[in-house]
Amino acid sequence: MTTRYIALVDGKAGAYGVSFPDADGCTAMGKTLDEALVNAARSLAEWATHAKIAGLEVPSARSAEELRSDDEVAELLADGAAFAVIPLVMERGMSVRANLSMDAGLLAAIDDAAEAAGVTRSAFLSDAAKVKLQQTF
After folding, report:
1. Could you state, in order of their start, the residue ranges of all structural domains in the chain?
2. Which H or E element spans position 110?
3. How many C-beta atoms lie closer than 10 Å to residue 83's C-beta?
4. Where does 1-94 sit in CATH, by number?
């Protein structure tokens, strides 16, 4: 199961900011909302990785309901911030083999796209999965 953190998003077109009440010091920015959310997912993964390397415990993510009862968060929401759900996808530094089934035409298209991008099928699919995960939450 993917851990999901609630982020606070504020700003306007050209300058969006994202912060995480449960990941102290973890922030991201973007010119568009989509860019800010993609950057937030990357920032959260880097923040958690650095915390683990430093021997710190990565705090559990609170629910939206729990965060709404936090006075500081409630004030930010009242000032116009909005919640966004960001998945924490941490690399483990080891590859595992997976047997997948899909349509032969789709696999051929994936192979063509991977070759055009100069990456392996596995790298292409991993990158595509990360993008999809960022868009799903």
Report:
1. 1-94, 95-137
2. helix 104-117
3. 14
4. 3.30.160.250
